[in-house]
Amino acid sequence: MVIYIIISLFAFYGIYHFIQTIITRAKIGCNSCGGKLCLVPKPGDEGLEGKIRCVFMDGISEKLGTDGCLYVGISEKDPNKPVVEKLSAEYPRLVLLDDINWSKIDTGNRQRH
Predict the structure, then answer these.
(1) Distance (Å, rounded) from C-alpha 102 to C-alpha 66?
(2) 2, 14, 79, 104: least buried by Cβ within 10 Å?
């Protein structure tokens, strides 16, 4: 009898997790333009690589209902620029923002000055 109770609890937990996953994915699919997750680090931020990896490994952008990309605004003089460029090759949804490609994040009703 105890086994059936334990199995039932695991089954209910599995169903709950399955429904939660469906709702999260439906929320992303319904809002195709969604929000944008932007990271503008301070120059020389030592933990930047770990922060970027955590965003992708934990699926933070999907959980927030954004478009699934992480936009990083990093200056040319930042010592972390080579690290972020290496990570952008590893994670295709990592978008480096500079003065040329800010249009990737603008929604059309705002302009960057």
Answers:
(1) 17
(2) 2
